[in-house]
Amino acid sequence: MDVRQTFPGQVHPTAGGGILVTKLDEVINWARSNSLWPLVFGTSCCAIEMMSTASAKYDWSRFGFEVARATPRQADVIIIAGTIVNKMAPVLKRLYDQMPDPKYVIAMGACATSGGPFFYNTYSVVKGADHVIPVDVYVAGCPPRPEALLHALITLQEKIRSGAS
Amino acid sequence: MNPQELKQQLEALLPSPTFEEGGEWTTLYTDPATWAETARRLRTTKVLDLDYLFCVTAVDWKTHFTMVYHLSSTTHRHTLVVKIRLDHEHPEVATVSDIWRTAEFHEREAYDLMGVVFTGHPDLRRLFMTDDWKGWPLRKDYEDPVNMIKL
Hints:
The structure holds 2 protein chains of 2 kinds. By secondary structure, chain A is α/β, with parallel strands linked by helices. Chain A contains 6 helices and 6 strands, in the order H-E-E-H-E-H-E-H-E-H-E-H. Chain A has a 4-stranded parallel beta sheet with strand order 3-4-5-6. In chain A, strands 1-2 form a two-stranded antiparallel sheet. Chain A is elongated, with a radius of gyration of 18 Å. The two termini of chain A are 20 Å apart. Chain B is an alpha/beta fold. Chain B has one domain: Beta Polymerase, domain 2. In chain B, the strands form 2 sheets. In chain B, strands 1-2-5-4-3 form a 5-stranded mixed beta sheet, with helices on one face. The longest helix of chain B has 12 residues, at 103-114. The chains are: A alpha/beta, B alpha/beta.
């Protein structure tokens, strides 16, 4: 996306340059939204679609997501790509707690949103990751296509820029 | 060995074996009382040499359980399936973990999720579920009002 379309503020041209009028909070949010580092975290088949989104064909680095981190200490966003079972729930909570603020959560696919196909007659599945940690953006699908995940990531960027998250 | 020859070998080896027809692999029926001895013979007889147990399954039929053992030979390249019918009230069968080491974990899984007791198993504890878990979650009559939403 063109930086000039999303940068908050106006440039008033003057002789030899220009004066920028903006709000610092909005500039910080704008900067954050363009450099979201996801945590390497995938619990089932949605992770395959997430990897596809990262790979050359869909290439989420176009939007600033390329620096996937293997440690929560350096991650900004956790994409819950897959089913969360009762035994995984405390691990997910710990990873979320270990991420530095500001942190964002995307629930990818039916399982992370509501338990999905495991909603009924299952003894082991958490019925939605939002029982464990707060979620910013939900993506429908089983699994969602890479385009859907990209849309969710861009939606998260817009949410951050608007100051809502 | 082709399925026909395998059957003939088993008929020579075991007293009056019964077979199930129609499956992809030769399927032998046996019972809990003779399973330990049958398993040992399947493993040690040179012409069979079933040295690889690649799947242990427990099936809940509501009226009874069936244990299914998938065996194969890495030298002769033949496969044999053994099925054992177990009582639903007290499903109990001898362990084969002393014959095929891999069964140690497979049997723990079957115990954990189906509640089949393997007598003689060296370490029959829960595998996936927490140690304090009550009940056998993969049984057809399993109820869990806390975690499960019934449809």
